[in-house]
Request: fold
Amino acid sequence: MKVIYVAGCVLLWVLRILLLPVRAGLWLLGLAVDFAGSVVCRIASSLGTIFLIGVVLSRAWTGLSDALFLEGIVIGILMAVIPRALSILSAELIAGIQSLLRKI
Reply:
């Protein structure tokens, strides 16, 4: 019984050492996703804001219909929300994988 315990401890130690580069790679991937996500979110937020301003000005100057006005508002909001949601989702996915590997 003692032999099985020692063999399991040695195997766990070897597995932890083999997974160390994977954990480091996930850490770097998390940093890259955080940076790229923040850049994309800033760009998308700026474009969404410009789109919303354009829709509001079109409504004021040209008498845009109610349906097109509401569609423009929704599209402008989605332009800012979807990239942020994808950034948060990918960061949480990477954090979840890291926490699973940390339990080993």
Summary: Helices lie at 2-62, 66-102. DSSP finds two helices and no strands in the chain.
